[in-house]
Amino acid sequence: MGFCFFNNVAVVAAYLRSRGERVAVVDWDVHHGNGTQATFYRDPEVLYVSMHEFPFYPGTGSIGEMGAGAGEGATVNVPLARGTDADIYLSAFARIVIPVLEQFAADWIVVSNGYDAHRLDPLGSFLLESEHYGWMSKAVTDQVASGRVIAMLEGGYDLGALSASASATVDGLGGAVGDVVSPRDFKIAAGIGQAAAL
Question: Among 121, 110, 130, which residue's Cα sits nearest to residue 171?
């Protein structure tokens, strides 16, 4: 629908699936990945989890879109309102995304790695900082055996934020991040990937 000619994440996930691998796709681009969702909507062996601004382009990704047929329950959408701050976003990530990944137990995780949820991005309205991508990358890597995570670059339209966030992501994938502490109501322990009330 205008943002890409080829869906690299779907191609990689489909290839891994064709080899009999169990694949989870984690999408933290600010736009919902309607193409990825549609590709695997009926497939129980590919989990699709998306955190995105809603309502926003392309208009899909409501909480009621959960997969169909054998794939029912293998699509998890976490639609968040315009202006969502880092506390709410990371809380949703810790309390929804991480437990779903733990339960699914994928062989591979493929990340739709958009940086347009960064507070400096001109298209999105979320308020993440670059270091948050490092923590999320570390938390995702902790959920798959042997660290089999593929992070694909997607959105991100502020070059400074994109650069700093990509660097933080590489640090997270390599395990070189510290704890993220929310000033509100939760603490995320790096390496554990669980939320605990303060």
Answer: 130
